[in-house]
Amino acid sequence: MPWRALLTDWQAGREHYYVLMEYRLPRLLLALFVGAALAVAGVLIQGIVRNPLASPDILGVNHAASLASVGALLLMPSLPVMVLPLLAFAGGMAGLILLKMLAKTHQPMKLALTGVALSACWASLTDYLMLSRPQDVNNALLWLTGSLWAVTGAL
């Protein structure tokens, strides 16, 4: 797309309007929103556990959410797509609650080590689920990588 079309007469050409307003802009806005939400989630977790080194991946929250979403995708394929984020959230929260129960203290080192161990367990269970159902793994991988391909300007 030429810069001139972007800066001056972008509404003159329907294809430029479609590319910008219906295709690129919604994906850009959603990516910015999701990135900001992940940053806020990381700061909240660091504040809750009072450990500046704590992050969702070290504590195993990411892998617990991945396990919940992959389990739902592979074991219940007819589940509505709108339910998957809720299940991923529930899985992440369950992983965080289990971490707090197993660590029992607020010692940063013990919390981090327990989180890394749980993260490895969640990741291995997720990998096992994907390896046990290779015919359905494409949807799970698409979900885990966070693709924006289905985002459009339509509400």
UniProtKB/TrEMBL annotation:
Q: Which family does it belong to?
A: Belongs to the binding-protein-dependent transport system permease family. FecCD subfamily.
User: Where is it located?
Assistant: Cell membrane
Alphabetical GO CC annotations of the entry are: plasma membrane
Give TM regions: 28-49, 69-99
What's the superkingdom here? Answer: Bacteria
**Keyword match Nucleus:** no
Q: Which organism is it from?
A: Escherichia coli
Which keywords does UniProt give here?
Cell membrane, Membrane, Transmembrane, Transmembrane helix, Transport
Chief localization class?
membrane
Listed name of the protein = Iron-dicitrate transporter subunit FecD
Q: Name one Pfam family in it.
A: FecCD
Which GO biological process categories is it annotated with? siderophore-iron import into cell
**Which terms does the record give in the GO molecular function aspect?**
transmembrane transporter activity
Record's SUPFAM superfamilies? ABC transporter involved in vitamin B12 uptake, BtuC
Q: How does it sit in the membrane?
A: Multi-pass membrane protein
Question: Which PANTHER family does UniProt cross-reference here?
Answer: FE(3+) DICITRATE TRANSPORT SYSTEM PERMEASE PROTEIN FECD-RELATED, FERRIC ENTEROBACTIN TRANSPORT SYSTEM PERMEASE PROTEIN
**Signal peptide, first to last residue:** none
